Amino acid sequence: PEVLDAVRNASERNWANPSSPHRPGSRVRALLEKAREEIAQSLGVVPGHLTFTSGATESNNSIISWFAKSLNQNHPGKVLVSNIEHPSILEPAQFYFPDHLSLIPVCSEGKVDLQQFEKLLDDQSPLLVSMMAAHNESGVIQPWQEVAQLCRERGVWFHCDATQWIGKLSHDGINVCSSFSFSAHKFGGPKGVGGLVSSQPISFLKGGGQEKENRGGTENFPGIEGMRVAWEKSCSSVKIPHHLVDLKKDFENGLLREFS
Q1: Could you give the CA distance from residue 56 to residue 194 in angstroms, rounded to a whole number?
Q2: Residue 192 in contact with residue 183, Cβ under 8 Å?
Q3: How far apart are CA 106 and CA 84, in angstroms?
Q4: Model confidence pLDDT, tens digit, residues 186-210
Q5: Tens of pLDDT along 134-167?
Q6: Which value, in Å, is the radius of gyration of the alpha carbons in the chain?
Q7: How high is the pLDDT of residue 83?
């Protein structure tokens, strides 16, 4: 209800274009930057590193395409992604790096094996590694913190698709990633809005000076304000209720009985 009220109020009272120089637009700009500061501060990142997007799919695509555009074509580097990534990572990676993409295998439990990954990391010396924090279908949690640290030690850019993590589990330490993406609707916010946190500026869309000239186009302030309120609510209750854990176990046990 609080998110719906925030979106409605922003649409009615703060409908002005935040990029316009008039007073109503400046007021919306101030509120938009307030939302950026609040979300960034709770994530432990610099506000200028947070770009508002339409969601994680756009954010993920932007990272892959940015690396493709910034690479020296005479010496294209390897890109490593896990073989269970969301299509918003796998498909652009296959498109932009058809001959320089390696898939990180997972074990029978659906997790990346850290020893195998470290060997692959040292053998291939990639420019970019991308791995999700938690799988969108199986719910399996990946060792993204350890992977981020291994990449950091080697100076390799690590991008984390944190869509299924942010707003559900503790985001402490998420700032160790070079970049990470999230979507508001995964923690009770509106659909069609999210963000990318990147330690370096990423070029999204040209044709406007919005988002520090990283992503042209009028910002969706009602969506951003709804996301801010949803984020505030989720930060005060980031925990997995015990009854959901019990339901998960019952469901898994039932599947095992049916297929054993």
Answers
A1: 6
A2: no
A3: 8
A4: 999 999 999 999 999 988 888 888 8
A5: 999 988 999 999 999 999 999 999 999 999 999 8
A6: 20
A7: 93
SS3 51: strand
DSSP state of 215: B
Buried b (16+ CB within 10 A) or exposed e, 114-146: eeebeebbeebebbbbbbbbbbeeeeeebbbee
Contact 182, 162 (CB under 8 A): yes
Give the DSSP H or E segment for 50. strand 50-53
Tens of pLDDT, residue by residue over 21-34, are 999 999 999 999 99
CB-count exposure of residue 258 (10 Å: 0-12, 13-18, 19+): exposed
Instruction: Tell me how far CA of residue 22 lies from CA of 30, 34, 213, 253, in angstroms.
Output: 12, 18, 20, 61
Question: DSSP state, 230?
Answer: H
Side chain identity at 215, as an amino acid letter?
R
What's the pTM value of the predicted model, to 2 decimals? 0.90
Cα–Cα distances (Å) from 119 to 48, 71, 145, 152, 222, in that order, read 35, 24, 17, 15, 46
Q: What is the pLDDT of residues 73-102, one digit of tens each?
A: 555 678 999 999 999 999 999 999 998 999
Task: Give the Cα separation of 245 and 165 in Å (integer).
Answer: 16
Give buried/exposed letters for 174-187 (b at 16+ CB in 10 A, else e): bbbbbbbbbbbbbb
Each residue of 114-141: pLDDT tens digit?
Answer: 999 999 999 999 999 999 999 999 889 9
Query: Whole-angstrom Cα distance, residue 121 to residue 141?
Result: 20
Distance, CA of 26 to CA of 38 (rounded, Å): 18
CA dihedral in degrees (249, 255, 259, 260; nearest 10)?
20
